[in-house]
Automatic annotation (TrEMBL), chain B:
Organism, as annotated: Archangium violaceum Cb vi76
One Pfam short name: AHSA1
Protein name per its UniProtKB record: Polyketide cyclase
InterPro entries per record: ASHA1/2-like_C, START-like_dom_sf
Lineage top rank: taxon: Bacteria
Length: 107, 154
């Protein structure tokens, strides 16, 4: 999955608001999402399509109802690329410090 | 009456084959790397028990029954804590759906029948995104995410 498309999908406050709504309550229909937004149904449909394309929203059909789910897996890829790496180094530094301190205790 | 709606749906697209995804969920040498130093043990036949165990100590962390197994397309499991664990919740249900998608694979993990706001729900909502991201990375590049190669902090 191309990361550009994830960032483009996130670079819009209405789309971020849609993700916020799904974060609060997952599996909502278009109608339920529209109730909370000051936007036309067509605009919401368009934004959801962009989020789906970026795999930030996953869709499940239940009968004739289309349910929308927040899918954080592409965000995890982004996290790992930049943040995860730095955190690992910090943890490594702490581990080294701990080992040294414990060695001092023994000597 | 319609079925209740799923609580969590996770999707990842992986540049690989359905057979490799199916095998990765069950191969201890793979799960060790992308699933926090754990392995999944079962004969993977419907009705059989399955356990999710620590790769090294074999301590059972999650267990349940294989409800459906249709290699390499669909695996449905019940998902709960081992018996006797304090604060036990009724088992939940996990579905792995592996579909070919434009030359790659779409893996959908659906987790439902979780106790709303319960400890298992909290745990899995933090667990699935890194596990699936790491599985994708491992199958595509041979490298898992570093955070999934060790046990989760508890």
């Amino acid at each position: 999955m191309d990361m550009d498309i994830v960032f483009k999908a996130l670079a819009d406050s209405s789309r971020r608001q849609l993700l916020d709504l799904l974060y609060q309550e997952n599996g909502r229909t278009l109608g339920e999402l529209c109730e909370h937004l000051d936007m036309s149904r067509q605009a919401v449909t368009k934004h959801l399509a962009v989020l789906e394309e970026a795999n930030l929203v996953a869709v499940v059909w239940r009968g004739r109802e289309k349910l929308h789910y927040l899918n954080p897996v592409p965000l995890q890829d982004i996290y790992e690329r930049w943040i995860g790496k730095f955190e690992r180094q910090r943890l490594h530094a702490l581990h080294t410090l701990k080992t040294r301190l414990e060695e001092d205790d023994e000597s | 009456m319609t079925s209740p709606k799923p609580q969590f749906v996770y999707v990842t697209y992986i540049q690989t084959t359905p057979e490799k995804v199916w095998a990765a969920l069950q191969d201890p040498e793979m799960t060790r790397q992308f699933w926090g130093l754990h392995k999944n043990v079962s004969d993977w036949k419907p009705g059989s028990r399955w356990t999710h165990q620590d790769y090294e100590t074999h301590e059972v962390r999650v267990t349940g029954q294989v409800l459906e197994a249709e290699p390499p397309k669909k695996l449905v499991l019940t998902w709960g804590w081992p018996e006797g664990r304090p604060g036990a919740e009724p088992p939940s249900r996990v579905t792995f759906l592996i579909e070919p998608f434009m030359g790659s694979v779409r893996l959908t993990v659906t987790h439902d029948e979780l106790v709303e706001g319960g400890a298992m729900m909290k745990g899995i909502s933090q667990g699935w995104p890194p596990i699936l991201s790491s599985l994708k990375s491992l199958l595509e590049t041979g490298q898992p995410l570093a955070m999934t190669t060790k046990r989760w902090g508890r």
